[in-house]
Amino acid sequence: MNYSPNAPNAEPAPYRSALAAGIEARGRRGAVVDCSRFMGLGAKPCGPAFVQVPSVADELESVDAAQTHASKLTLEATRKDPDYINTAKSVELVWRAFRDDADRKYPLFPGPDWMRANLTSDEVGALLNILLEVRREHGPDPVVIQGETVALIADACAKSDAMAGNILAGLTREQLTSAFVLLSIEWARRGVNVEALNFVANEAPTS
Fold first, then answer.
1. CB-based contact 29:82 (threshold 8 Å)
2. What DSSP assignment string belongs to 133-185?
3. Which of 16, 54, 135, 162 is 20 to 30 A (C-alpha) from 7?
């Protein structure tokens, strides 16, 4: 770097490509969701919330905050318990992602401590599922699992294990979960006999 006695000794601004400038101009991706039905507030809905897709910084800060929270506990076993840490991470991430849609500068909930004191683990789990769905839908390669997709997977499974494996390998965990739920609903609707289905699967061609 060249220093000049007539100019402030500051690092130059980093170069921004057209892609980088476009990403910055785009802002945070996300979706407006109605949280009242997940929170069990009945006649007192909390109103819509804007769920923003977490940035890398959000996720790293959530991990750091969860570890900091755990370090304050008395029992070492609890501080290192993976379930406890994962729950703490979920609370931190949900707090950062859910914004008040009336003014998105502010979080929907007062803070992680407030969430731990006032929400159940089931409610935090429901909120986390909403967040994962929003992240999937607004990801770099969104794939929406619908009935037609499940039908294609089922048809591939009937024809070839290898073909089915290639299709399933390209799906995320959330997409696989969605496909499983849709397939389970269809099974229940049709009254499918699982034992008979296992027999058919064993007789299916492998090439």
1. no
2. HHHHHTSSS-----HHHHHHHHHHHHH-HHHHHHHHHTS-HHHHHHHHHHHHH
3. 16
* The token pair that represents 101 in the structure block: 């849609």
Strands 48-52 and 30-34: antiparallel
**CA quadruple 27, 31, 35, 38: dihedral positive or negative?**
negative
Q: What are the tens digits of pLDDT across the range 59-112? A: 999 999 988 988 887 777 677 788 888 889 999 999 999 999 989 999 999 999
Q: Are 84 and 70 in contact (CB under 8 A)?
A: yes
66 burial via Cβ count (<10 Å: 0-12, 13-18, 19+): buried
CA-based nearest residue to 132, from 174, 90, 89: 174
What are the boundaries of each domain within the chain? 24-137, 147-203
Beta partners for residue 51, in sequence order: 31, 98
pTM for the predicted model, two decimal places: 0.61
pLDDT, tens digit (0-9, with 9 covering 90-100), for 150-178: 777 777 777 666 666 776 776 766 677 77
* Cβ–Cβ under 8 Å, residues 154 and 204: no
In the sheet that 48-52 helps form, which strands lie side by side, from edge to edge? Answer: 30-34, 48-52, 98-100
DSSP-based three-state secondary structure for 99? strand
Alpha-carbon gap, residue 97 to 107, rounded angstroms: 8
Structure tokens that stand for 12 in this block: 């130059």
